[in-house]
Amino acid sequence: MSAVKNFKRNERGLLAKPPIDYVFNEDESVNWRKMVRKNYLVPNKQRTNESDVNLLEDKDLLILLGGIKELAQIRGFSSVSYEVVAANQEYFATSCIIDWLPNYETDNKPVSFSALADAHQDNTYSFASNFLAATAENRAFVRCVRNFLKINIVGQEEMGGGSTQKQALHSTGRSAAKTDSSPVSLLEKVMESKNVTFQNIKSKLEQEEFPKASTFESVKDIPKTKTFELIARLKKL
Questions:
Q1: Phi/psi of residue 85, each to 5°?
Q2: Are 121 and 192 within one domain?
Q3: What is the domain extent for residue 134?
Q4: Tell me: the pLDDT tens digits for 62-120?
Q5: Global confidence as pTM
Q6: Do the Cβ atoms of 95 and 114 come closer than 8 Å?
Q7: DSSP single-letter state for residue 14
Q8: Same domain for 210 and 145?
Q9: Distance between CA atoms of 16 and 8, rounded to whole angstroms?
Q10: What is the pLDDT of residues 57-78, one digit of tens each?
């Protein structure tokens, strides 16, 4: 995915053409949350029965994918790329890397930012469970944009939850497959292939001052997002 080329930006890195009505915080940084247009906001039906988004707090809202894409274009980026962390019929995980254009918020320096996301039968709805790769890709993109722009409203693409039917399938023959494709199992397989021990992993995390790394007793104690990162790093060895 590449950026639109005909946008014109001023000396601060903000869009001058087409003109945009930016909303700013007191410290003069852009309030990207306020830049989300209301037609891209919908109620989070898992949290509220209210249908009027004007009456809802951020915690009860969801951002549509179109709104996230619009924000990314307004902020400005040079490229979007993906790195597949794990892929099989039951589980897909990928990282999204966005190279953001420089602006005054980044001291006029380009910034590369990434985020991880996964999709499997127990965290997807209806037809999305048949398109795990696309679902994980969209989720990673949404999280990358949201986290970089410090937006705390969850994206609609990030919503998950398996149905009763899926849970029944899980209990009648698919649990072994899911266990094999879990982030922990995938990390253990990569560690084995690279001849890396848990102690190696733990020591490295401690050197990098990863929070609570000294308390980890097995790979199961490593946060899932960090597990994805470790898988990607080990595969490059």
A1: -90, -40
A2: no
A3: 8-161
A4: 999 999 999 999 999 999 999 998 888 788 999 999 999 999 999 999 999 999 999 98
A5: 0.73
A6: yes
A7: -
A8: no
A9: 6
A10: 999 999 999 999 999 999 999 9
